[in-house]
Amino acid sequence: MKRILVLHTGGTIAMHEDVDGDVEQGAQNPLNDAHLDLPEVELTTENIFNLPSEHITPTHMLALYNRLKDAEQDFDGVVITHGTDTLEETSFFLDGTLSFEIPIVMTGAMRSSNELGSDGLYNFQSALRVAIDKQSKNRGVMVVLNDEIHAARFVTKTHATNVATFASPISGAMGMVNKRKILFFYDLPYKQTYPIKAVDKRIPVMKAYAGMDGHILSLLADSGIDGIVIEALGAGNLGEDAALGVLKLLDAGIPVVIVSRSFKGIAEPVYDYLGGGVQLEKAGAIFASAVNGQKARLKLLIGLENQLNTNDLNNYLHEF
Ligand code: ASP
């Protein structure tokens, strides 16, 4: 018998359609009385929040972390249900802060509980099957929806409404849920995790664009932010004006993290001219590998909350 802790946090998987066809929250999570065909599992269920995931903040992620940090003693696995809009961020936060052997599996749904083709119960059962599978240990936090298993590290929401929304553009899915078997395609490279006690740092994310205004960036130098993530162009480049704004931020001692606004590939310094990645890095900007803006923000938050020095922060953001 496997002991699985289930934490429900809300999201479409916990919602239903009203008479007008609008999707809304209910007081009760429909999964609480779901009938599951998994006789060898003992579930301990907690409705820790009932929130649409747009209302989830790092404070909620920290509450999940605090609930989970000793869970390995009592459980063989964890399943967390969550709204899909910010699921990748909560999964990434937990993946970066909890160093667990037991699986943590997150899931959600794109169609609410009483909609035609609702995917919630199916995804929940798939997540439980992955959580009890013996191959699932030491894989960090996984995201299971639509018969695919993704590593929190690489997964992102790619479609606003389609049930096949979660994908790992850089690595591909880590595994697959079949009718009888769970298959894993690869193991993950090592990654550092850091514990966390607070989530107070202010870190905005800005997206670069042709003609990006450097003045707006320089205004942030005096705004009390603790760091900034810029989704830069291509391999991590900026226009001249934006580059001058970045120099002002760096002069003010604000960590500037560069990721690519491109959907695939990683940011790395290639070009040596004003705004090119080579010059941005020489000026002190940090290149974060294989993460999008929202994940780089959480990584910077975890690094700053752990008071990493410049060198360690650089290494931490660089590694996959
Ligand atoms: N708006 C919903 C949420 O993230 C979307 C979903 O769960 O699919 O809470």
UniProtKB/TrEMBL annotation:
PROSITE patterns the record matches: ASN_GLN_ASE_1 (PS00144), ASN_GLN_ASE_2 (PS00917), ASN_GLN_ASE_3 (PS51732)
UniProt keyword annotations, A-Z: Hydrolase
Enzyme class at the top of the EC tree: hydrolase
EC number: 3.5.1.1
MF-aspect GO terms: asparaginase activity
Active site, UniProt feature: 12, 84
Protein name: asparaginase
Similarity comment: family membership: Belongs to the asparaginase 1 family.
InterPro entries on file: AsnASE_II (IPR004550), Asp/glu_Ase-like_sf (IPR036152), Asparaginase/glutaminase-like (IPR006034), Asparaginase/glutaminase_AS1 (IPR020827), Asparaginase/glutaminase_AS2 (IPR027475), Asparaginase_C (IPR040919), L-asparaginase_C (IPR027473), L-asparaginase_N (IPR027474)
L-asparaginase N-terminal domain boundaries: 3-187
Keyword Disulfide bond tagged: no
Keyword Protein transport recorded: no
Catalytic reaction annotation: L-asparagine + H2O = L-aspartate + NH4(+)
Domain Asparaginase/glutaminase C-terminal: 202-316
Organism: Fructobacillus cardui
UniProt xrefs under Gene3D superfamilies: 3.40.50.40, L-asparaginase, N-terminal domain
